[in-house]
Amino acid sequence: PVMLFRSKTIAESKQDYKYFLDIVENLTSDDLEFYKELASQIADSDNVNEQGNSRVNQILHFIDANNISNSDIADWIKYNYQERNVIITNSKDGTKTLEKTTDDQERLLNSLEDKDNNIRAIFTVKRLTEGWDVLNLFDIVRMSEGQNAGGSNKTTAPATVEERQLIGRGVRYYPFEYA
């Protein structure tokens, strides 16, 4: 599976990329202590989506049943999300307003579904526009806050249309089996 982190500007995308790599590089087992409190917080809440509750409980049960430690999880994240597995579509010769990818980046982006492709996260501004389909993209993280501007009562803001396209690409494919 691949995660896509979408920022508003190239400068923000570069900052988010560096921040992510820093978090992964410095991740410790102590950073994952939160999940032990997660189950009780979900159980105590009156406003919890039942499917989300059961999914979290399945994950926690899997961790316990397989004797997986926080250290194991941290090591897995550090290995799978190191710099060689993360790509930013803003090449060094891109401009402030236009993303520009290298030939190697394009090759990696256009072969994300290949079993030998090691990319697990993409940082971008305008990637996943019309014509780029990735069936193993499951998580789309919008890095900016606030509402998009530029529309009127007669037109929809271009950013809103792009976000609809992005969300549509992410939700149309669900590869998991129900047991």
Record keyword descriptors for this entry.
179 residues, alpha/beta, four-stranded parallel sheet, 6 helices, 42% helix, globular
Largest sheet: 4 strands, parallel
The chain-level mean pLDDT equals 74
Strand order across the largest sheet:
2-3-1-4
Order of helices and strands: EHHHHEHEEH
Report the C-alpha radius of gyration, rounded.
19 Å
Give an overview in words.
The model has no long low-confidence stretch (mean pLDDT 74). Helix 5 links the parallel strand 2 (86-88) and strand 3 (121-124). This protein is an alpha/beta fold and 179 residues long. Helix 2 packs antiparallel against helix 3. A four-stranded parallel β-sheet has the order 2-3-1-4, with helices on both faces. The chain contains six helices and four strands, in the order E-H-H-H-H-E-H-E-E-H. It has helices spanning 10-25, 34-44, 50-65, 70-80, 103-109, 158-171; strands at 2-6, 86-88, 121-124, 137-142. Helices cover 42% and strands 10% of the residues.
Set out the fold topology.
Blueprint: E1 2-6, H1 10-25, H2 34-44, H3 50-65, H4 70-80, E2 86-88, H5 103-109, E3 121-124, E4 137-142, H6 158-171
Parallel strand pairs: 1-3, 1-4, 2-3
Helix pairs in contact: 2-3
Overview in brief:
With 179 residues, the chain is of the alpha/beta class. The protein is 42% helix and 10% strand.
